[in-house]
Amino acid sequence: MRQPKCKPFLPAAKYPRKAVRSVHYDGTDLSIEIQGEGFAFARVVFSNPAGFRVLDESDLAEFWNTYSEPNGWLYEVEEGGWFELESNRPAFNSSTFLDGIHEYLVVDEICISVLCLQPPEIKNTGADLV
C-alpha cells in the first residue's frame, strides 16, 4: 500500500483547535460533534456515508506527523488510505457500484475514516470555534 497523500479540507481551517466529543450514526447521517476552545461547538455531518471506521490514532501511525494537528484535523485522503486498502479486497463492491467515492479522515485521539459521495458539511452549533 502506498504512503498516504491527503489535502486539508479547507472549511475545517476555520476551526484550528478541537476535540471530538461524540460520534453518532442514525442510519442516514454520520455526525461528529467537536468542541473548540471554551464552549464553542460544531457538528461535522457526512450525509449517507458508504462506510466509516473509528480507530485509535496509534493504529494510523502512517498518517503522523504530516496529517495531524496542528497541520489540520479534517483531511480528504487522495491515496494510501482506507478506501485504497478496501479496494484491494475482491469482495469490496462499493467502488464498482458507487461512482465517485471520496475518503475523509478526522484526526484526534480517535480517528474516523469516512467513505462518502459528497463532502461533509460543518455546522456551527455554538460560539465560533477559535
What does this structure look like?
This protein is mainly beta and 130 residues long. It has one domain. The chain has helices at 82-87, 94-97; strands at residues 5-8, 19-25, 29-35, 41-47, 51-56, 74-79, 102-106, 110-116, 121-124. The strands form two sheets. A five-stranded antiparallel sheet has the order 1-6-7-8-5. Strands 2-3-4-9 form a four-stranded antiparallel sheet, with no helix packed on it. Strand 7 and strand 8 (110-116) form a beta hairpin. The protein is globular, with a radius of gyration of 14 Å.
What does the overall shape look like? globular
Q: How many domain units?
A: 1
Bin the helical content: under 10%
What is the strand arrangement across the widest sheet?
1-6-7-8-5
What is the first-to-last residue Cα distance? 37 Å
Average pLDDT over all residues: 89
Oligomer: single chain
The stretches of 5 or more residues where confidence is low (pLDDT under 50) are none
Largest sheet data: 5 strands, antiparallel
Q: How many whole angstroms does the radius of gyration measure? A: 14 Å
Annotation, overall tally of beta strands: 9
The number of helical runs is 2
- Which structural class do you get from the secondary structure elements? mainly beta
Strand content: 35-45%
The run of helices and strands is EEEEEEHHEEE
Which terms would index this structure?
single chain, 130 residues, mainly beta, five-stranded antiparallel beta sheet, 2 helices, 9 strands
